[in-house]
Amino acid sequence: QVETLKAKLLEQAQEISRLRSELGGTDAEKHRDLLAAENERLRQEMKACEGELRELQRQQQQAPCRDCPHLQENAGLQEQLSQLQREVEEARAKLVELDLEVQQKTNRLAEVELRLKDSLAERAEEEERLSRRLRDSQETIASLKSQPQQIKYIIKTVEVESAKAKQALCETQSRNQYLLEQVGMQKQVLKEMEQQLQSSQKTEAQLRAQIMMYEAELERAHGQMLEEMQAMEEEKNRAIEEAFSRAQVEMKAVHENLAGVRTNLLTLQPALRTLTHDYNSLKRQVRDFPLLLQETLRSARAEISQAIEEVHSTNRELLRKYRRELQLRKKCHNELVRLKGNIRVFGRVRPITKEDGEGPEAANAVTFDADDDAVLHLLHKGKQVSFELDKVFPPQASQEEVGATVHTVGVKWGGSHLLLTLLCLPQVFQEVQALVTSCIDGYNVCIFAYGQTGAGKTYTMEGTAANPGINQRALQLLFSEVRGKAADWDYTITVSAAEIYNEALRDLLGKEPQEKLEIKLCPDGSGQLYVPGLTEFRVQSVEDINKVFEFGHVKRVTECTNLNEHSSRSHALLIVTVRGLDRSTGLRTTGKLNLVDLAGSERVGRSGAEGSRLREAQHINKSLSALGDVIYALRSRQGHVPFRNSKLTYLLQDSLSGDSKTLMMVQVSPAEKNTSETLCSLKFAERVRSVELGPVSRKAELGSWTSQEHLEVLKILLGDSPGSTAPPGRAHTSPSPGQLSSRSASIRRKLHTSG
Ligand code: ADP
Ligand code: MG
């Protein structure tokens, strides 16, 4: 039994050592080392992959395809890679855990082994003791056998002894029993240990399975990584191939360019040769240039000085001619004006207005001659009275006909922009234009509007904003003519506005409008008159003058009478002074344009005025008859002209005498109720116009013919007309329309008077 037990124990120990060697840390350690090595290898591979990846990224960054799908794919792959790395990291952590567990297990196993060793030692000791006792017992038995005579005794003793032996046996048996129990216990322990071993084997199997799983996982990760690396490798190859093909294409283009450049170079070579040739010849020329230049300069200088000399002489000649022409033109103009007469009298009939009322009072009393635009017939108290003026404007005559239209248009000519002033002149306005031209030439000019209040004086002179009158149109003309001469002449234009009210002269533009101004003789002995303290404004356009006008209007004295609500009781004067300087000759001229809106000419009794109004009317009548007298005296070329009889004529003395020109616009109303005033106005007009003229004045009479009239005169003289026997005598105050209504009759009449 002991032997079998021993054998069993030995067997157990062997098994244990086998298990130990099997289970021992070495295997797990080996496995761990293997895994670590594998890990290290994988890490190396990963590093290499990362390096490759970086290289690929660098290539991609260098490559122009920034938005290509590879980038996105790459990003995906990188993400997968990082995922895998994370997984590997997790697996590593698990591995470390497992290592720890294995370590714990190994420790426990070592403990169990130690305990087993102790119990084995104990058992060997026990066995030793038992075998010693067994030997002692056997020796005792053998000694007993060798002493047979003493058997009885011995038996006895044996008996005695046997009792003792029996006890010893019993003891031995109990001892054996105890040992058996011990063996059973040991068996139990062994069984437990076996169970423990089994469980640890199970754990080991589990661990192995886990390790296998991890290995498989690692394998899979590795495979995936390999695949990805493969894909990346392919990607890299593809990118390289693409880059290569692109580079090839670029290379091809570069080659082509090179070929082009080569051919260019080939074609340029001859050009270069010719350029070199040119350059050489130019170099030669440059070398010779200073000499040539000096030569040319010398000859050019000579030529230029000659040309300058020629131009100078031509200029002198031209200047001389120009001055002569200027003199001639002035002479001609003066002669023309003189022939026409310095004083022109026009009549204008205003239309019947609402203010004239209705019924027979407002009936039209004025008719015109269809053939003669200078004749007008007035029906007064049942009698027709005819008047002849220089020109008569019917009610339908527009402001343009009386004035003129000036259009300024911009035109493109030869690349430059020109301003053309187009003057639309009705035949009549030629008079106004002639006056403006004279003024610019340095003559004094007057334009008067005469007539009863409400006859249209202000309308004719000033007009309305939409339909301006003579003032505006004459000034427009003045400025446009001045602009036209701006190349040779410098003009300074100033305006003054004055009013004569009750024989007192007042400055309409001054700071003290109530202040009475005096007219004085120039102290320089030139005989010129001037008004000290009269404000003058320098103007550059019609707009400037209009502003001055508006300013003056505010101050003008206007009062209501029962004839016209806004009847003007004063003479209004706008004095435009034009000072010119001919830049080429240094000639200076000064001309004055006086635009006068006279006060109403109606008689006192008619207007029903009293007191101060009566005084006003008396002053007005006095000054108007003085004006009539002056004009009459001038036109009949009397030695004495009564300028000093009124402030008006005195102020305008230098603009009425000498070479001055005057236009009188006589305004009349056509209404039946105004016929006596109309008659007075027309008589005044005829008085200043139809003067019995001497031989010189006769020329003026002839001069008032129009070119059309001259033609007709020629026809008459040549006996072309049936009315060649003209009736003698002038019947201009009451010519019978039946007898003398035709144009030729009028001309014949003129012919007769002019001889
Ligand atoms: P005056 O200045 O002689 O007192 P206005 O010029 O004030 O007279 O004219 C009196 C009225 O007659 C104004 O309403 C004016 O518009 C009108 N009138 C005068 N002449 C004409 C005309 N030719 N055409 C139209 N209306 C006119
Ligand atoms: Mg008026």
Automatic annotation (TrEMBL):
CDD domains, per the entry: KISc_C_terminal
Record-linked SMART domains: KISc (SM00129)
GO cellular component: microtubule
Keyword Nucleotide-binding: yes
Ranges where the Kinesin motor domain occurs: 342-691
UniProt keyword terms in alphabetical order: ATP-binding, Coiled coil, Cytoplasm, Cytoskeleton, Microtubule, Motor protein, Nucleotide-binding
Coiled-coil regions listed in the entry: 2-147, 190-246
Annotated region (Disordered), positions in chain: 719-755
UniProt-annotated location(s): Cytoplasm, Cytoskeleton
Single GO biological process annotation from the record: microtubule-based movement
Biased composition (Polar residues): 733-745
A GO molecular-function descriptor: ATP binding
InterPro entries membership: Kinesin-like_fam (IPR027640), Kinesin_motor_CS (IPR019821), Kinesin_motor_dom (IPR001752), Kinesin_motor_dom_sf (IPR036961), P-loop_NTPase (IPR027417), Vik1/Cik1_MT-bd (IPR031852)
Pfam families assigned to the protein according to its UniProt record, in alphabetical order: Kinesin, Microtub_bd
Top-level taxonomic group: Eukaryota
Annotated residues for binding of ATP: G451, Q452, T453, G454, A455, G456, K457, T458
Keyword Ribonucleoprotein carried by entry: no
Ranges of Basic residues composition bias in the record: 746-755
Family in the record: Belongs to the TRAFAC class myosin-kinesin ATPase superfamily. Kinesin family.
PANTHER family (alphabetical): KINESIN-LIKE PROTEIN KIFC3, KINESIN-LIKE PROTEIN KLP-3
This protein's name: Kinesin-like protein
Species for this entry: Tychaedon coryphoeus (Karoo scrub-robin)
Phylogenetic placement of the source organism: Eukaryota, Metazoa, Chordata, Craniata, Vertebrata
